[in-house]
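Issue: copy button drops trailing tokens. Both records pasted manually instead:
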Amino acid sequence: MSSKALLQRFAAWRSTQQTLALATVIETAGSTYSKAGHRILISESGDYQGLVSGGCLEGDLAAHARQVMATGIAACVTYDMRGEADELFGLGVGCNGLLRILLQRLSPADDYQPFAAISDVLLGTEAGRWGLLVDCPAEPALVGRSLVLTATGMRHIGLDPDLGTAIGKLCSAEHSAAALHRFAHAGQMLQALVAPLHPVPRLLVLGAGLDAIPLVTLADTLGWRVSLADHRPAYLAREGFGAAEQTLCAPAAELGQRLPLASYSAVVVMSHHLATDRVYLQQLAAAPIPYIGLLGPQARRERLLQDLGAGARSLHGRLHGPAGLDIGADSPESIALSILAQIQAVSPPAAELRSTVA
């Protein structure tokens, strides 16, 4: 399940003031469906958003979550399904892996922290890191306390300044993937999960032709936040673009003034109008967007690059035209699939946090 779907369900549950449980995978071994840092939400009714397994463990996890929601005491649940242990456990999953999952309560009284702070980062444009205390022998009640670190600040959630600074130093170090870290503090050894927080990726589609409908729809299904722009009002009024969270009707020359181009992870230029695409590319050349896809044959791309002159140099390595992987696509739907597969394959993850803690 995508981060976008998780955030949407969180907003819905939060609006009704439900108590929830946050389940975070803190450690894995062997073959597992999810990895450290993965999060799902569980409601009081046992409903859940997201998966830590292929759907095999979530019912049992929900039973543990009810206890956590009732007491407010964080708990760690371990599922060891390696070899015969799988059969002994009784689920018969056969995944041959181990999962350790930390459950903690999210309540209206605590403003749903720490997930509310996490969601702010995921819905924003700035990458961050989350530090989650998972083991504190001297004070078990501190398990689940957190901090969220971004390039512009650090937010403590239930941590005293000294412990917050210690975990903050772990978060400010270069870590490419979520992992557990042991550290000494106040005469004892503690353990914290440090996990990257990447904002939900944003896709900008330039051109609202009929072939843009499956691209917008599939990108939404994959969990992207999609914006759609075109200078033709009738095109934007077509049915089928309901998945776009933002639409813009404006001349191509106003694109950079009307949209924060730097906030997009990828853009696809598909107006099917040569002069319009040229203006789009002129503005995209100056924007730090990792992936720029251009519909049309290679000869059309070369003509547009020649028209751009020296400005075309900044598109080197970012412009993909014809857009999409060569999968034999021959329909708007399969072309949309090939484009999104290429974006997934070549786009770097959200920018790593470049921040230090004093």
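Record 2 (pasted manually too):
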Amino acid sequence: MTVQALRQPPAGDATKPLDVERIRADFPILTNVRPHGKPLVFLDNAASSQMPQQVIDRLVRYQTHEHANIHRGVHYLSETATRAYEQARISVQRFLNAREDREIIFTTGTTEAINLVMHGYGRRFIGAGDEIIITYMEHHSNIVPWQMLCEEKGAVLKVAPIDDSGELIVEEYEKLFNARTKFAAVTHVSNALGTITPIKHLIDVAHSHGVPILVDGAQATPHLPVDVQALDCDFYCFSGHKVCGPTGSGALYGKAALLEKMQPFKGGGDMILSVTFEKTTYNTIPHKFEAGTPPIAPMIGLGAALDYLSAIGMDRIAAHEEALLAYATERMLEVGGVRIIGTARHKAAVLSFYVGEVHPHDVGTLLDEDGVAVRTGHHCAQPVMQRFRVPATARASFALYNTHAEVDALVAAVVKVRDMFA
């Protein structure tokens, strides 16, 4: 397979809506799989989106023409693989509009990125009596690491509340800041509710108190344009498998000045400049945080996925998904006995719901019989479930390849569940 043989993504035109059928043709799984003999209606994108043929082809090309370990080899394959790997870093830099490519740290996903910041920044700069601010709508990955840090250091975790619609109560968030506040970590988009937080304001509030802030962008990067320079966040992280890339890939953006002050998260090969039994000298960023042989193929696939989305245009993707969510919300509200969990004014492509008194796991099982794939459970956001007094929800989440007809299929399947338990 040559470079020229790789299939190109559909070119974006900001003035035109998405050609969804053209885009769907890029995703072979949408036609290759027929669960229970039914057409696949894949609405579990907040957990993992599907990969287009362009990303699959790029992975195959690496494995069949470029595979070698990177950075330390001087032979042809090693140099080829290194160029492909570092080109993927540039793709992430461009996708986030980071100032420099050295501000992009490759990770296995959002969870590892947050833990990297907790260990590298938090363990070095946060101590007893210091306070860390998060919000009530965080994913467990943006709760547990900070709890671990607080337990170790004697720090205090402060939580900004949300209202009955699932919106952050910004005034309460602002009140949490004081002289003891040393860090904030907030989500850009809630994975359980779809709420889009006023992220620029949250960042500005933190900075007005001299507090660095991390943004969990796992649910934002698939759906919204992200510009870390315009946001002025200190850290931003996301997962590759939610942006049409491979599992085991992701990235952390960090301002260079902060990354240079941080201690490494892991020790081992490639994060060093020199090692003696008396002392180790660490490598420069980003390599200081990328110990050992990295997941080379997934990162190259991640770069291809971001290039694919960028070619289509994130603004166009956002507009398409916003229209899908509005249509799905309207249609679901027409179904008696359905309660939508999360009704914020500004939402991304997530629709969490409860059908009568039917447990969401049963809802998900019955929807699957009609080929409709949704996520059920607490979505690694148990505090959110507790806030809305439900054990779990069924969650439909949309991507660029979903259609209005698939929304109709979802609603028809929900009606069947409702009638079955009526």
